[in-house]
Design goal:
The protein has 278 residues and is an alpha/beta fold. The protein is built from 7 helices and 11 strands. Helix 1 packs parallel to helix 4. The chain is globular.
Length: 278
């Protein structure tokens, strides 16, 4: 069963081609747009990327870095009995892997349709449809939290999410999250040679927005520099213990949007922040 913490109205499918632009988008607009986008596109996303992600793998990003090897949450054998919150879980592939290690995961996502794919795949852990900026859990409910490209790239106020995660973690708890590497914002989001030339300022924090004919946002991503991310982490009461920039492995010949072997061997595509609550 999917537990609904809040209900949002999502837009129905449209016939328009969204206009891509850079403009301000506040928290309310970002939340509404991204919930609607993921509800509308969840089926296509799982069809396109489901094989790569697997049903019960824990992959940190398009490079294919697997938690089995990375052990960013700790050795798999130490996960048994741990309460773990997955934020932006999608179809909860990571939670399914955590459960197989003996952990007690809870999979949370803003998109109801994404969580329906988790129901389709199966699993005995809780699914919660809620905003990462208002986590519906008591203080100190979890030992660990994780987010593989979930929530953080899409929120206008990442400190709100980080503070909420810290609140629900127990002392000594660890939060590991991956996002698009900030340097990628200076390059076109293209997998070929055209994606290797700087096209905009790395320091331009203006959000990327796709909008409809009325100018309403239907998709929003927010840019933070590496320094911004570090300051957000520190200001939210976490200690940054590692920053992982996965290199593109030779076995990975696939393309995923702007990620590709060509770009991956030259510039980083993913940044993984490993944080601990003192």
């Amino acid at each position: 069963m999917i537990q609904e913490a809040e209900t949002y109205e999502s837009e129905g499918p449209g016939e328009f081609e969204p206009e891509a632009t850079r403009r301000d988008a506040d928290a309310t607009e970002s939340t509404r747009a991204n919930r609607g986008w993921w509800d509308r596109n969840a089926d296509e996303y799982q069809t396109e990327h489901g094989t790569f992600l697997g049903d019960d793998r824990f992959v940190w990003g398009p490079e294919g870095l697997d938690e089995v090897e990375a052990e960013l949450l700790g050795p798999p054998g130490d996960l048994k009995g741990k309460d773990v919150l997955e934020i932006g879980a999608g179809a909860a592939q990571c939670s399914r892997w955590l459960a197989a290690q003996g952990a007690h995961p809870v999979a949370l996502d803003l998109s109801h349709r994404q969580l329906q794919h988790s129901l389709r795949i199966g699993g005995s852990f809780p699914l919660v449809c809620a905003d990462a900026g208002a986590l519906p859990f008591r203080d100190g409910s979890f030992d660990l939290a994780c987010s593989a490209y979930g929530a953080l790239p899409f929120v206008a106020d990442p400190r709100l999410v980080l503070r909420e995660v810290r609140r629900v973690l127990r002392p000594g708890g660890r939060f590991v999250f991956s996002v698009t590497h900030p340097i990628r914002w200076a390059f076109p989001d293209e997998p070929g040679p055209e994606g290797l030339s700087v096209s905009s300022s790395y320091f331009d924090r203006t959000p990327y927005v796709e909008q409809d004919e009325q100018g309403r946002a239907v998709y929003v991503e927010h840019h933070r520099t590496v320094g911004d991310r570090v300051r957000d982490i520190a200001a939210s009461g976490f200690r940054l213990v590692d920053l992982v920039e996965p290199e593109w492995p030779s076995w990975n010949t696939s393309e995923w949007g702007g990620w590709s072997p060509l770009r991956g061997t030259l510039i980083p595509g993913t940044a993984i922040f490993v944080c601990e609550r003192d």
